[in-house]
Amino acid sequence: VAVQLATAGAKVDEVTAAMFAADQYRDYMELNGLTMQLTEALAEYWHSRIRSELGFASEDPTDIAGMFKLDYRGARFSLGYPACPDMEDRRKVVELLKPERVGVELSEELQLHPEQSTDAFVFHHPEAKYFSV
Q: Which of 36, 43, 102, 127 is most open to solvent, judged by the fewest CB atoms within 10 Å of its CB?
């Protein structure tokens, strides 16, 4: 089991907040959406690195369609989604990873800040698949 955290960083929150305050809603939405997707891409990159370091990246698909179908070994389960609905588990992730080292904080509501941050448990058993609890 691996635990990971990815973030686009605090600067993005500052810039998007300024855009929102200046009524630049389209720019805000576009930058916010882009950085959310970049954060997810970074999480996928680290997931790939984990598979590589564990020695089974050769099992990864070589085409984009296979990647979109998640046709690789294991799964990455993010907190708050159906397979890991208990947000209290986020406290464990924070305790393990110390995300404040990279500017990520946990709110009283168990949300990560900056908003463009994500955490996950990564399982690499060949039968690990996404599911709902």
A: 127
